[in-house]
Amino acid sequence: MNKPNERKLTIARAMAEAVAQEMRVDPSVFVMGEDIGKLGGVYGNTRGLLEEFGAERIRDTPISETAFIGAAVGAAQDGMRPVVELMFVDFFGVCFDAIYNLMAKNIYFSGGNFKVPMVLMTSTGGGYSDAGQHSQCLYGTFAHLPGMKVVCPSNAYDAKGLMTAAMRDDSPVVYMYHKSLQGMGWLATEPGATVHTPEESYTLEIGKAKVAREGSDVTIVSVGMGVHHALKAAAQLEEKGTSAEVVDLVSLVPLDRDTIRKSVAKTGRLIVVDEDYMSYGVSGEVIASVTEHDISVLKAAPKRVAYPDVPIPFARVMEQYCLPNPDKIVAAFDGMNAA
Amino acid sequence: MAPTREQQHWMYRNMVTSRKFEEAIAGIYFEGKTPVFSMADGPIPGEMHLSDGQEPVAVGVCAHLNAGDVVTATHRPHHQAIAKGVDLDKMAAEIFGKKSGLSGGRGGHMHLFDADVNFACSGIIAQGMGPAVGAALSRKMQNKPGVAVAFVGEGAVNQGGWHEAMNLAATWNLPFVCVIEDNAWGISVSKEDSTAISNNAERASAYGMPGVRIADNDPYAIFEAAGEAISRAREGKGPSLIEVETYRLAGHFMGDAEGYRPEGEKDALFEKDPIPKMRANMLADGMASVAELDTIEAEAAARVETAIKFARESADPAPEDALTSVFA
Lengths: 339, 328
Ligand SMILES: Cc1ncc(C[n+]2csc(CCOP(=O)(O)OP(=O)(O)O)c2C)c(N)n1
Description:
The structure holds two protein chains of two kinds.
Chain A: E1 8-9, H1 11-25, E2 29-33, H2 49-53, E3 58-60, H3 65-77, E4 81-88, H4 96-103, H5 106-109, E5 119-124, H6 139-144, E6 149-151, H7 156-168, E7 173-178, H8 179-182, E8 195-196, E9 210-213, E10 218-222, H9 225-239, E11 244-248, E12 251-253, H10 257-267, E13 270-277, H11 282-291, E14 303-307, H12 316-322, H13 326-338
Helix pairs in contact in A: 1-7, 3-4, 9-13
Chain B: H1 5-29, H2 55-62, E1 70-73, H3 78-84, H4 88-95, E2 119-121, H5 129-141, E3 148-153, H6 160-171, E4 176-182, E5 185-186, E6 189-190, H7 191-194, E7 211-214, H8 219-234, E8 240-245, H9 265-271, H10 274-284, H11 290-313
Parallel strand pairs in B: 1-2, 1-3, 3-4, 4-8, 7-8
Antiparallel strand pairs in B: 5-6
Helix pairs in contact in B: 1-2, 1-3, 1-10, 1-11, 2-3, 2-8, 4-11, 5-6
């Protein structure tokens, strides 16, 4: 059902295309990670790269995240632009020092004398019963620690532009892609993520949110998969006569607080949707961005639809009970009005 | 020390039970996942890492363990769980995400925990090492009997955590054994392409402990090496390392097309399937009669069928059970 001139790509293909285009023009870009070579990535986002660029620049690694992410930091400081993959964000546990004490701090420690131009791409999200070590989002964990930019595309157009921008950035960028948006062989994909993606190389500004849908009665802020829940909730709300605006954060660091504030100033109501754990995370930060700034714009207390503060269970009924979904967002809005 | 007749029967029974269990899971796994494969669907959602072909390691080692000994396992834990005596009904129910499962459906196939037989898992590579070393430390400090065994894949040996745990176990002279199941592949990356040396048992010398490599997935040689290592540990003589050449007859996970394997490799592995091989050996050695082995196989099949039936018929957890069991 493509319109003429439309070229729909999955996020996986958009990521691979961005990397390939950059590798063609910049010999300092190379890729490292587990199963990113012959397999083309567990999520398909490096497919075709080994065939085009060879094993010198597309490096399958041992299962040694501390070593190869640390190595990426060293290579980045020495003039390369590594793109490294942490297969599941949940695996940060075995290698976080390389990420938050090295990658995120070496620019600062060196007083800006070293650049650390690297991209750490990593998959997030659950909803398919992979249990608590393979389903987390951890957006707040990464966004909390200073020194790394954090981006999180909700569709293929953004995915490509963000990847190119990330590779060209002289600072480290954590690129978090949600498995349910990815478009890969082993998991169903949210159709809204597969969108028109221009063939030529382009960048998307890191740190800039988007209004994914305009509305006037309530602002629903989210990121990644949550944006699609928010859009579906907005469609449901519209049937009930409520006009919801959806803000796609796109980047978590820097956080585009202006766009959030502007939207809430217009609507007077705020719901934040986050698949990451509720407490100490993105949802609280978004709300604080508004309340600290000007609480008088709010017509109701803000609401959060986020993952409860429990490890992610395996069983489908339990996991689905915990995950955000459009119905929960609509219920949050109804609760807001009742209050 | 060769396994006795009884021990061989036990080993064979557990190998067959494990294989039949995996076959049953494999049969059910694709229910609801066709025509378009999506891991989220069907009665057994999520990833599924089967242990077909790796049974000799589990039985050769666990033949020397009792319920009080500690085992930590990996993302591929079914054969080890069965050999360690994890309750098969509750294990199956856990894999189906049922309330009657080992953990009420919270853990699933990569997180099998059975306190009754001191069995635990981690889906994070090499992260069974620390807890096994810690259990060994605890036994030593409490002056309680028992050894701790960490099963890992050969890929785990390239994790920092593996080396740290090995050094700790050796420095503190703990009753610990690390067993590496070398199936030559870490998902699509071969051992050859990811590991500086081909014989990981050599790494034992870096920690001043004995290390042996067993070729050809041989249950008898595994039994012997494990017997020696576990006796050493029980006698307070410290830790050991065993690497076993084994075969992954399944994909990395179910749905894996295995396009990365060289042509013909898989067929050659099936030729070396350890189960018919052990059966033939036992018959040749006069260690079992055809009737005995047939009975073992039939009983194993029945046991698996009961477990699967229990799992299928068990109730789902209540959705809000997700919020319980976070703290003790
Ligand atoms: C720290 C960490 N990195 C990566 C993974 C993803 N992963 C799961 S299984 C696997 C391959 C493991 O290979 P090996 O240890 O040899 O065990 P096998 O799968 O062959 O049984 C990888 C890379 C993980 N679970 N944990």
